[in-house]
Structures are given as structure tokens and as C-alpha cells.
């Protein structure tokens, strides 16, 4: 628990919604609502004056959209932002874009009446956002697509595959890594904590953004160089397995693990029998999903990389792996692509 309440600024153009959010958050003694704003310009002035710890932000607002404001905010004054909007229903492109711009969470504002459940989720998300900030206070990942990320080169591929896991802050982090990967990157299988519909939108966004082919990892899909596979979520976890001399995606029908489908631990556990052929990567995220599976991989010969604290939105999952002493490297986000490629290339004589 923090020593002082989390200061929250509510940004929404509807007074009735402002009041509902304020009332719900004020019930929690760990939260203090310090102000409300009806548009981005009011929010800008209040941020300067009130210095909030967390912002809740609508998308559809007058004068400037929430997404435009989020992009500017993350460029000029990065801070934890929770998108709370009716436009984030059903895994919309707006929701995935908000996450890629650096929002730490996206919650759907109900179209027909607020419920206690959604307001409790918003309250918990606010507390997670505050507790999840890095020790240096600079853990929020801003827009990573602006400019031209430095492209990493790779010598001849050595046949290894990459298993990657992420949670809160992971959309922006995954994009930051992938935009630096070479066209002929090793096969990459990603387990990102998101609902099924969001994952479908995220895969589409990545496929439009990247030169590599990005697809949902369906059961039986072969793992080929220059291809990226995103877990589709839903009712099954995503894993990998050997098929003759090649590797392929496998669907794992199992309950939620660590509260998630897809689970990073399930992805990592699936690769234990082929661990010497794997580079495992843990990015930003709440909790410890992936750490136990990574330990099993490490014991069988996998190469293990974790994101460092300073560049994480939430230093949870990589911290769990670091505390176990199983990371071969712990790196800033911008250096992870290079480390992956180095581990997946044939060493020069």
C-alpha cells in the first residue's frame, strides 16, 4: 500500500459519468480524486496544477480526441493513463491503438448503465497503475512507432525460435521490440494478456505495421523464419512443439493459469522438451506469469532475456524471473531485439 493516496484526474466530457467515476473511486481510501476535466485542454491545465498520479481518459471528447491527447501526453509528460470509453468495446482498433500509445489499461464504458462490477474494475485498475510505476518514475512506455527504430541485423539463423510473454504495457513493448527486428527474424510466438477480440485486432495492427508476416498462432501452424505468431486467446492457451525436424504451434486446452488465457507460463512450459532451441523473453507485466515456465526452460538449456525495471510499465513478470536468478540478460526495451538476434544467429568463426 502506498503511503499517500493515489491522486486521480478524471477526463470525460459527460458530467454524469464524471460524477459516477468520482463517487466510485472516492469510496476507496487509497484513492483521492483531485479533479475532473471535460476535455483535453482542461486536462492539460489541471495536470500542470494538480500533478495527478493516474488519469482516467475517455476517447470521444470535444476539441481533441482522447487518443490524440494520449499521444501528446506520452510524448511530453508520460504518466499512467487508463482509457475508459464506450469506443473500446469488443476489441476495437481504438482500444489497441490506445495500448500501443502507452495506456496502461483499457476498460469499456458500458453502453447501457454502469454496474458495480465495472466500477470496481476501474478502481482496481487505478491502484494497479499507481503501484505499477517503475522505481524511477519513468516506466510508462510512450509511442514507439514514431520515427525510425534502429533495425537490427542477424547473421545466418541457427534454427532457434523465440517465445515472448507480456502483460500490462505489453502492446507498446512488443511493438518496440518487433519494429527493431530484421525482416528475416527467427520465428516469434507471443503470449500477450488480452481478451480474444483485442488479440485479433492487435495481430491485424502488427501485420499492417511490420514487414514480417504476423498471424494468429492457430493449432498446427508451422513456425517459419520471418513470421510472427500471436496467441489468439479465447478458450485455449498457445504452445509450441516439435513436428519432425520442424516446430509448430499447438493449442493447449487447459483452465486459466495465473488468471490468464493465454498464459505465458503455458507457452513456456510447452517448450521445455525443445528448450535448447528456444530463446525466452519476458516483458512488462503485473504478476509473475511466465517466471516459473522460464525457470523450467532455463534448466533445460534455453536462453532467457528479461526487460529491465526502468523501461517497464509494470516491473512484475520480469522481476519475478530476475529474483529467481534465471535471466541471462536483463535489458532496456530498445536493446532486446539485438539480444534476441544475437542468441538466434550462427556464431561467426
TrEMBL record:
<dbReference type="GO" id="GO:0050568">
    <property type="term" value="F:protein-glutamine glutaminase activity"/>
</dbReference>
<dbReference type="InterPro" id="IPR008248">
    <property type="entry name" value="CheB-like"/>
</dbReference>
<keyword id="KW-0597">Phosphoprotein</keyword>
<feature type="modified residue" description="4-aspartylphosphate">
    <location>
        <position position="58"/>
    </location>
</feature>
<feature type="active site">
    <location>
        <position position="193"/>
    </location>
</feature>
<keyword id="KW-0145">Chemotaxis</keyword>
<feature type="active site">
    <location>
        <position position="167"/>
    </location>
</feature>
<dbReference type="GO" id="GO:0006935">
    <property type="term" value="P:chemotaxis"/>
</dbReference>
<keyword id="KW-0963">Cytoplasm</keyword>
<dbReference type="InterPro" id="IPR035909">
    <property type="entry name" value="CheB_C"/>
</dbReference>
<dbReference type="Pfam" id="PF00072">
    <property type="entry name" value="Response_reg"/>
</dbReference>
<dbReference type="Pfam" id="PF01339">
    <property type="entry name" value="CheB_methylest"/>
</dbReference>
<keyword id="KW-0378">Hydrolase</keyword>
<keyword id="KW-0808">Transferase</keyword>
<dbReference type="GO" id="GO:0000156">
    <property type="term" value="F:phosphorelay response regulator activity"/>
</dbReference>
<dbReference type="InterPro" id="IPR001789">
    <property type="entry name" value="Sig_transdc_resp-reg_receiver"/>
</dbReference>
<dbReference type="InterPro" id="IPR011006">
    <property type="entry name" value="CheY-like_superfamily"/>
</dbReference>
<dbReference type="GO" id="GO:0008168">
    <property type="term" value="F:methyltransferase activity"/>
</dbReference>
<feature type="domain" description="CheB-type methylesterase">
    <location>
        <begin position="160"/>
        <end position="347"/>
    </location>
</feature>
<dbReference type="GO" id="GO:0032259">
    <property type="term" value="P:methylation"/>
</dbReference>
<dbReference type="GO" id="GO:0005737">
    <property type="term" value="C:cytoplasm"/>
</dbReference>
<dbReference type="GO" id="GO:0008984">
    <property type="term" value="F:protein-glutamate methylesterase activity"/>
</dbReference>
<protein>
    <recommendedName>
        <fullName>Protein-glutamate methylesterase/protein-glutamine glutaminase</fullName>
        <ecNumber>3.1.1.61</ecNumber>
        <ecNumber>3.5.1.44</ecNumber>
    </recommendedName>
</protein>
<feature type="domain" description="Response regulatory">
    <location>
        <begin position="7"/>
        <end position="124"/>
    </location>
</feature>
<dbReference type="InterPro" id="IPR000673">
    <property type="entry name" value="Sig_transdc_resp-reg_Me-estase"/>
</dbReference>
<comment type="similarity">
    <text>Belongs to the CheB family.</text>
</comment>
<feature type="active site">
    <location>
        <position position="289"/>
    </location>
</feature>
<comment type="function">
    <text>Involved in chemotaxis. Part of a chemotaxis signal transduction system that modulates chemotaxis in response to various stimuli. Catalyzes the demethylation of specific methylglutamate residues introduced into the chemoreceptors (methyl-accepting chemotaxis proteins or MCP) by CheR. Also mediates the irreversible deamidation of specific glutamine residues to glutamic acid.</text>
</comment>
<keyword id="KW-0489">Methyltransferase</keyword>
Amino acid at each position: 500500500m502506498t503511503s499517500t493516496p493515489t491522486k486521480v484526474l478524471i477526463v470525460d466530457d459527460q458530467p454524469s459519468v464524471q460524477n459516477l467515476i468520482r463517487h466510485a473511486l472516492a469510496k476507496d481510501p487509497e484513492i483521492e480524486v483531485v479533479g475532473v476535466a471535460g476535455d483535453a485542454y482542461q486536462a492539460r491545465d489541471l495536470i500542470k496544477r494538480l500533478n495527478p498520479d493516474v488519469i482516467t481518459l475517455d476517447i470521444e471528447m470535444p476539441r481533441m480526441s482522447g487518443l490524440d491527447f494520449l499521444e501528446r501526453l506520452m510524448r511530453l509528460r508520460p504518466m499512467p493513463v487508463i482509457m475508459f470509453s464506450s469506443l473500446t468495446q469488443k476489441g476495437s482498433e481504438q482500444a489497441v491503438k490506445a495500448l500501443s500509445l502507452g495506456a496502461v489499461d483499457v476498460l469499456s464504458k458500458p453502453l447501457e448503465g454502469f454496474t458495480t462490477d465495472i466500477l470496481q474494475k476501474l478502481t482496481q485498475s487505478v491502484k494497479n497503475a499507481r503501484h505499477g510505476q517503475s522505481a524511477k518514475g519513468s516506466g510508462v512506455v510512450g509511442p514507439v512507432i514514431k520515427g525510425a527504430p534502429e533495425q537490427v541485423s542477424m547473421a545466418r539463423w541457427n534454427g532457434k525460435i523465440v517465445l515472448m510473454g507480456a502483460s500490462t504495457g505489453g502492446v507498446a513493448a512488443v511493438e518496440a521490440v518487433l519494429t527493431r527486428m530484421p525482416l528475416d527474424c527467427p520465428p516469434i510466438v507471443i503470449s500477450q494478456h488480452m481478451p480474444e477480440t483485442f488479440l485479433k485486432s492487435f495481430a491485424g495492427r502488427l501485420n499492417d505495421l511490420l514487414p514480417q508476416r504476423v498471424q494468429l498462432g492457430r493449432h498446427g501452424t508451422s513456425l517459419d523464419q520471418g513470421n510472427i505468431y500471436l496467441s489468439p486467446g479465447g478458450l485455449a492457451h498457445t504452445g509450441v512443439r516439435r513436428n519432425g525436424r520442424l516446430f509448430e504451434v499447438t493449442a493447449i486446452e487447459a483452465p486459466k493459469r495465473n488468471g490468464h488465457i493465454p498464459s505465458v507460463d503455458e507457452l513456456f512450459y510447452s517448450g521445455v522438451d525443445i528448450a535448447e532451441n528456444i530463446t525466452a523473453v519476458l516483458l512488462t507485466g503485473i504478476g509473475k506469469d511466465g517466471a516459473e515456465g522460464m525457470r523450467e526452460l532455463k534448466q533445460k538449456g534455453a536462453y532467457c532475456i528479461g526487460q529491465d525495471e526502468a523501461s517497464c510499465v509494470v516491473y512484475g513478470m520480469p522481476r519475478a524471473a530476475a529474483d529467481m536468478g534465471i535471466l541471462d540478460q536483463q535489458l532496456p526495451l530498445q536493446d532486446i531485439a539485438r539480444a534476441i538476434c544475437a542468441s538466434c544467429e550462427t556464431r561467426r568463426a
